[in-house]
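Sequence in, structure out. Go.
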Amino acid sequence: MGHRVHWNNLASQQRNERGAGIIDLLFCVIISGILSAAIVNGMSQAHRASSSSQNQVLAAAIAQEVIDSARNMPYTTLQTFVGTHNLVVNSGSGYTPPPIFPRPLMQDRTSLVWSNKATNNDFDATVTETIGAGPVPNTLQVTVLVTWRENTGGSRTFTMTTLVSEFGIHT
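Output:
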C-alpha cells in the first residue's frame, strides 16, 4: 500500500507541473501581447510626431518663400499690394492665385511640378500674406501666416514677419 501511494503522489506531482507549465506559457503570451501593444503604440506616436515636424518645416519653407518674394519686389511695386492676400497653396485649392504670388506655393517654380504633399493633399493649409505700413517711416511690414491641420485633427500656425525699406537694396 505504501508503494501505491508513492506512485499516486508522483503522478499527481507530474500533473501539477504540466498545469504550472501551461500557466507559465499563458502568462508569457499575455506579457508579450501587452509589450507588443506598447511598442506599436510608441511607433504610432513617433510617426505622428514625425509628420507634425515635417509639416512645421514645410510651413516655415512656404513662409520663407513668400517673404523672399516680397523682399525681391521693388518697394513701389510692393506698395501697390498693401492689404491681405490669401495665397493658393496646392492644386486642390480651387481659386486663382492673386497677382502678388501668381503660382501655387506647393508647385516647384522651375519645373512647375507639384510636390508629393500637394498631389496627395497631405498638407491641408491656408497661407495669408498681409502687407501694411511698417513701424518706421518708409517701410512696409510683410507678415505671412501659415495655418494647417495636423493628422490628429488639431490646427497649428506658423508666422513670419519682415520689413522692407524704401531705401533698402531696391532703390
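Check: The chain has one domain: 36-165. The chain has a mean pLDDT of 76.
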